């Protein structure tokens, strides 16, 4: 059986994040997923492994909510589960920045293509910071 790892995050207001958390947990418990999902008032962040069929069902579940229609999954193939268990948690932030009132949908960097990124890091005056 073939497996996938889904990596994703998406900033969007979730005023019903407690309800969405419960809905998400109920859905995921019907499948054989392992990994970590964080749900907060500001969106969702996850790294999840599962077989091809289950991952397709999860992607369809996410896209069935219009708030996530622009979410982009990074998908990699793997031979088996990559994580020991499934953890779905409610948190204050999907990425712990500890910067109150920051809206990454408004205050953000500029998106660049992979080709442009590779061109930029070839220059000696480019500094790459991975936080």
UniProtKB/TrEMBL annotation:
InterPro entries: TrhO, TRHO_N. Residues 3-94 form the tRNA uridine(34) hydroxylase N-terminal domain. This is tRNA uridine(34) hydroxylase N-terminal domain-containing protein.
């Amino acid at each position: 059986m073939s497996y996938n790892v889904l990596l994703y995050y998406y900033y969007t207001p979730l005023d019903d994040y407690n309800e969405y958390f419960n809905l998400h947990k109920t859905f995921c418990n019907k499948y054989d997923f392992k990994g970590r999902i964080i749900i907060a008032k500001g969106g969702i962040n996850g790294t999840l492994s599962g077989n091809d069929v289950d991952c397709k069902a999860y992607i369809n579940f996410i896209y069935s909510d219009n708030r996530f229609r622009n979410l982009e999954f990074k998908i990699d193939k793997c031979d088996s589960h990559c994580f020991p268990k499934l953890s779905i948690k409610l948190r204050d932030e999907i990425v712990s920045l500890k910067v109150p009132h920051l809206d990454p949908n408004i205050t953000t960097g500029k998106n660049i293509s992979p080709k442009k990124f590779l061109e930029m890091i070839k220059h000696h005056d480019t500094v790459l910071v991975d936080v």
